[in-house]
Amino acid sequence: MVLIAATTAGLALLLSDTRVDAAQDAGLRQFGAAVHDFFSPPRRHWRRAHKRATVGQSPRVARDATETREPEQAVTQEQPARRGRTSGAKAPGARTPGAKASAQFVPPAAAPTPRPRPFEAPNPQRELAQTAPSVDARPARRDRTGEQSDALRGTRAARAKTSAAAKEADKAKEAVRDAAEKTVPPQQTPEAAPSPSACQMRLGPDLASVEFLPPIHAGQCTVDEVVRLEAIVAKDGRRIALTPPATLRCPMAETVIHWVRDDVAAVASSLGAALKSLTVDTSFECRSRNRIAGAKLSQHGFGNAIDLRGFTLANGHTMRLTDAAANKPARERLRQVACTRFTTVLGPGSDGYHEEHIHLDITERRGGYRICQWDVRDPSTIVASVPLPPERPAAAPPRQAHSTAKK
């Protein structure tokens, strides 16, 4: 109720437009101003801005300071104004609400405008407009006439000269590179070869033609005392070639040399001609057994194995060691002496991987165990090995003849 009464009193005071001296009743004027500000947000905004300009003064006192009329004159002018409103006519010199508002509300000072930008200051838009070619200049460039055409031709000529100079420089570099490649480099001292082992010293020129190679280290495959066996010298001095040459470990090469000189040459002579060459299938090769993934490392990876396909006689006759049609006594003799010289002999009938060649190695096993699996076959054995269907029993019913006539 108190708030409603105070609000009503303040509204009545404002509507009556009665001037009250600040010195007589300052409290009432402040209360009326507070009520007026509560119902007039625009005026409250103006008062907040006007307060910044009159620091140290109350908002009401600052507004009173802007008024030029004296309190007594304001009272004398308000009385005719009230009488004029009562009679319906305005007295001369009476203040109107609009005039009062124009005297009381002072608009804030206008915001200062920035100074114009100096012409000397950088202006990207002006520079772009100056550098961009005009519409009139574009046809001249397309026609290639006047100064622009001359400048364009000069630029192209300079580019052509630069390109020609670059090409000449590239040719000079290529010539220098070719001359450097053709220049013979100075001879470099080769690495000192390892001293020959006792086994290698035994392989003299009267036994074989060999070449000593450095040790081989290829992953798990390691070979020491490596020799390249190119040919074997027979007892009568003839040269028995190995095609292709075999890369073996020296103990394995020595075993092959004595087997060929003492046994294979004698078997070849029994066939009517001297031994000329041996056909080698595989010597050193870093792989698993039978090339099966996950299997143990083959003896070929240690240089201890060789695979042979056959040999050639001096008269041109060729004999395959696994050929069933070849001389069977000669192949049986070769099998016997091979199983005596080597610890492993694998051929046809062993495991299905040696049907076309003979595998020989010198693997050392516990207790001197040896493997000799080489079936010397003949054509009759091959034919008999094919299973035939059994004969038809006599108690079986007779077969019925199938008629081809159409029903």
Amount of beta strand:
5-15%
Rg from alpha-carbon coordinates: 62 Å
Structural class: alpha+beta
Q: What's the number of domains?
A: 2
Contiguous runs where pLDDT drops below 50 for at least 5 residues:
68-72, 84-94, 96-103, 139-144, 183-191
| Spatial gap, N to C terminus | 125 Å
* Global morphology: elongated
Per DSSP, the total helix count is: 13
Number of strands: 11
Short description:
The protein has 407 residues and is α+β, with helices and mostly antiparallel strands. It is built from 13 helices and 11 strands.
Outline the structure in words.
By secondary structure, this protein is of the alpha+beta class. It has two domains: 2-104, no CATH class; 198-381, no CATH class. The chain is 43% helix and 15% strand. The protein contains 13 helices and eleven strands. It has helices spanning 2-16, 26-39, 41-53, 59-66, 71-87, 97-104, 124-131, 137-143, 146-182, 198-202, 250-270, 328-341, 379-384, and strands spanning 208-213, 216-218, 221-223, 226-233, 239-249, 275-282, 305-313, 318-320, 344-346, 358-361, 371-373. Strands 1, 4, 5, 6, 7, 8, 9, 10 and 11 form a nine-stranded mixed sheet that branches. It has a two-stranded antiparallel sheet with strand order 2-3. Helix 1 (2-16) packs across helix 2 and helix 11 (250-270) runs antiparallel to helix 12 (328-341). The longest helix is centred in the middle third of the chain and has 37 residues, at 146-182. The protein is elongated, with a radius of gyration of 62 Å.
